[in-house]
Amino acid sequence: MGGLSVLAMPRAILGFLRITRWHPLTTLLVKANFDAAYRWRSHSSCSGVVVRDVQGQVLGACTRIHGQVSLAFSVEALAVFLVLEFTWDLGLSRVVFEGDSLHVIRKLNSTQVGGSEIRALIKEGRL
């Protein structure tokens, strides 16, 4: 947060901020963590995935660089598609997905047909 003073933040925000660490699973599933970064000047992004088993051992990891990405929303959508594609390629069927793409997940789960940026990207063949 650089030079920002955490003490000057309202209590509601302080209660929301917390340090989160990776925790191993307690069931016979695997966990796929994913994230993305975006460079607005070059309209490029990078998505990354790490898949771990119950003991925390890495089963696989991958990154992908994406060019010509015009929306920050698209970056998160690309990360979701990468994690789905990667776990499918590994032959995994019982996966817990963990990322910070709540907006994308809500869009994917939405039953509304019109106006979704993610559906437009799929239609254009960009996802």
From TrEMBL:
Sequence ranges assigned to domain RNase H type-1 in this UniProt record? 33-125
Q: Name one GO molecular function term.
A: RNA-DNA hybrid ribonuclease activity
Q: Which InterPro entries match?
A: RNase_H-like_dom_plant, RNase_H-like_EbsB-rel, RNaseH_domain, RNaseH_sf
The protein's name is RNase H type-1 domain-containing protein
Classification of source organism: Eukaryota, Viridiplantae, Streptophyta, Embryophyta, Tracheophyta
